[in-house]
Amino acid sequence: MDKKIQQPKYNQLAKTSVIFLIIGIFAICAWMITTKRADGKVQNVLANTLTSAEVFSGHFTDKLRLRGSISPQSTIYLDAIAGGRIEEKLVEQGQYVIEGQPLVRLSNVSLQLDVMSREAQVTEQLNFLRNTQMAMTTNRLNLRRDLLEIALKISHLKRKIKQFKPLVKQGVLAKDKLEVIELDLIYYQQRQTLTSQRQQQEEDIRQVQVKQLEESAVMLQKNLLFARNNLNNLLIKAPVSGYLSELNAELGESKSQGARLGQIDIPKQFKLMVNVDEYYLNQISLAMKAQLFVNDETVDIKVTKIDSRVRQAQFRIELALPPSIEHIKRGQSLELDLMLSKGMKNSLLVKRGAFVNNTGGNWAFVLNDNGTTAERRLIKLGKKNKNYFQIIEGLTAGERVITSNYNAFNRADIIKITGHKS
């Protein structure tokens, strides 16, 4: 018969204690979660680590402070039309040059030989043309002489026939002799016809040959003129008046055809090249106004070109500078304010700060009246300029917002400010 084993009382007491302990821990956790949800997470922050700004109503100008570099409005490049070896450098970089002024002289032996060869070809062709024309003229004169001789012979034969016919009728002259003269007359008449046809054919052929030879001579002369122009291109001249901002030419250096030798900048015609963050790509348009700060003055300028290609998170715009601006040079840097939109009156504004880096402009800590606590609040920011954010909703004029960085209390709902600002 089995015997029932009784467990010790202290084991039952231990189990009961563990169960009550677990229930207590769960109750404490539930209370903490409920308390956190009800009151929010509170964090203490020293006052001297915070920066705040007051929300106020004022005139908002949506402008962007930028910095650009001056470049010439028009640049004329100097290229080697005909390649060669640099024999002479007639000017130095940075000088002001006048249109047509010689700058660099090159030499090209092969080009000079080519010009001489073309000159010889043209001379030979012209001599051949003259000889052909002379031969044709001589042949034409010979044919005309033959026709004159034949015409004279025909005239003599006709006169003899006219004289011999009465004598044949009278029986004084034999009829056979008259018939021979008549046959000679027929021969010379037919010969006259053939010679006239030959003269016409040769005249037609002569005209075609002469035309072809003249066209060939004209083509050779054009080629010669082109070669001579290439020879003249060995002397590089200034195409316009301006400053020779670059000159890449050293004595003895060889330059290939089309090589870049330098450039000339047109004086008193400048533009401002500005790199802008890609964030503003869809906000900038042509003819947009800007204010340029130069020589302790403010000058109104406009956007003239937008290069929408993004490089290293930036794109480039150009703004034309008026000729009235003096004492500026290529490569100089100037500041400007780009007016992204027209000014807006009675806008709620707050000073710019690092808090947007943590909040994205969606919320902020708003101080109470005495500045001892700050509570997280949903807000909505609009446009911004170099000094202020525009507030769309969530704040009213007179309230103060913590504008410094929120890294130390980013997860808090309420912060208590302790100590005094130093």
Note down, in words, how this protein is organized.
The protein folds into 4 domains: 42-60 and 345-418, conserved putative lor/sdh protein from methanococcus maripaludis s2 fold; 64-73 and 269-339, Efflux pump adaptor protein, beta barrel domain (Elongation Factor Tu (Ef-tu), domain 3), CATH 2.40.30.170; 77-106 and 234-264, OB fold (Dihydrolipoamide Acetyltransferase, E2P), CATH 2.40.50; 110-231. It is of the alpha+beta class and 422 residues long. The strands form 6 sheets. The protein has a 6-stranded antiparallel beta barrel with strand order 4-13-16-15-14-17. A 4-stranded mixed β-sheet has the order 1-24-20-19, with no helix packed on it. Helix 2 (109-170) runs antiparallel to helix 3. The longest helix has 62 residues, at 109-170. It is rod-shaped. It contains 4 helices and 24 strands.
Which features characterize this protein?
single chain, 422 residues, alpha+beta, conserved putative lor/sdh protein from methanococcus maripaludis s2 fold, Elongation Factor Tu (Ef-tu), domain 3, OB fold (Dihydrolipoamide Acetyltransferase, E2P), 4 domains, 6-stranded antiparallel beta barrel, 4-stranded mixed β-sheet, 4 helices, rod-shaped
